[in-house]
Amino acid sequence: MVRQPALPTHATCLLFVGPSRRPCFVVERCRVPFEELGNSEVLIRVRLAGLCHADARRFVHAPGGAADFTDALIPGHEAVGDVVASQRPGVDVGARVVFSAFNWCMECDCCRQGAHVACENATKYGGQPPWALGGTLSSHVLLRGGTAVCAVPPAVPDARALLAACPLAAAIAGVRRLLLLLPGRVEGGTAGQRGDDGGRPAPPPTALVQDCGGGLVGILACAVLAESGFMVFCEGGDVSRLRLAAKFRANPVFKDAGPLTPSATLPDRLDVVVMAFGVDGAGSPRTAGPHARLRAGGCLLLLGQPPPGGGSGTTLEAGAILAKGLSVIGNSEYEPDNLQDAVQFLEATGGKFPYDELLSPVYGMTDFQSALASALDGKFLRVVVRPS
Ligand SMILES: [Zn+2]
Ligand SMILES: [Zn+2]
Predict the structure, then answer these.
(1) Which residues pair with 11 in a beta bridge?
(2) Residue 188 in this model has a pLDDT that exceeds 60
């Protein structure tokens, strides 16, 4: 039997104490309240944590209001770290890993049927998980038995690996579902295949990502769609964000096109429209309704985390969906296997896409106030924190 190394006795944690308290967080050295790991559990030492906009928003608006806030918690659901103890076969001490933002129960009917997104007992890291060390703004995180864990290849640097477990896995899950609905249009991830008659290559399917300037998931969706064989367009959000999307193989459509902002021309009818939800207010169609853009039989993909209020302002017209036979997919989470897909995508496309332009400089825990300000003002699409 392999001897497990002794667990650390203390961890350094950022404790969020409530949105109405000043200060609303403290950094504390906390006693690790367990002496051994349970079946399939893994303890990691965090190298870097990502501060998602949803996490940052919590510091200013508690879900359900300040009155509902009862217990201090460790926020954060994105991290890359080293395994320091493991009771999971195949996850070895010393491995550099990322892990899913969710712990699934693996026992309910949904989990048994492989539909983990509908797990009745899923818990998100950084919320109020009913276990200690359950958030990533901490020197150590305890991964429960229903959490997907994936080794990070050497070619993927720490900060880039942070993209895998939240926005990239969700974007890949959404695009995978799209591909199931577009048989024959996209095969094997290559565009421009031979037409049915073996002659001219068929044109690639087209996708428009709306509001991709708003959040990270929209920009990453551009990259995933392009790598899956789509001709990708993007609109909405500010000019600099659209230019950033262009580096992820989208063709930006500018509202006020000019000599410095040459705009792509949208095809009359698109195969796919993606509405990317990222930050407050994003996801509201500020341009023509998504249905009008789609060809008959096209697909609308709603992707990402809706802002508080559930994405109000977004209306889907039942008549248009029926008349055109459209498919509508809502995708905010992902299946355990998509974490591995995301890591492989980062490894395979490291030289193609400028992932580092999505990331902030690394903030130390003692400078968390600056990290929070940076996340809230949206200057960087992902803020990076080193918790230890
Ligand atoms: Zn996230
Ligand atoms: Zn379940």
Answers:
(1) 30
(2) no
- Specify the pTM: 0.91
Q: Is residue 5 part of a domain?
A: no
pLDDT tens-digit readout, 30-40:
999 888 999 99
19 and 110 share one domain: yes
242 shares its domain with 292: yes
Compute the distance between CA of residue 46 and CA of residue 35 in angstroms, rounded to an integer: 19
Please report which ligand is nearest the Cα atom of 52.
1
CA distance 297 to 272: 10
Amino acid letter, residue 218: G
Q: How many independent structural domains does the chain possess?
A: 2
5 alpha carbon – ligand 1 mean position (Å):
31
Per the structure, the complete domain to which residue 225 belongs is given by 168-331
DSSP line for 234-252: EESS-HHHHHHHHTTTEEE
Nearest ligand to the C-alpha of residue 220? Answer: 1
Output phi, psi for 344, to 5 deg. Answer: -65, -35
CA distance 53 to 279: 7
Residue 51 bridge partners (DSSP): 383
**Are 148 and 197 in the same domain?**
no
Write the CATH number for 269. Answer: 3.40.50.720
Distance of CA 13 from the midpoint of ligand 2 (Å) = 28
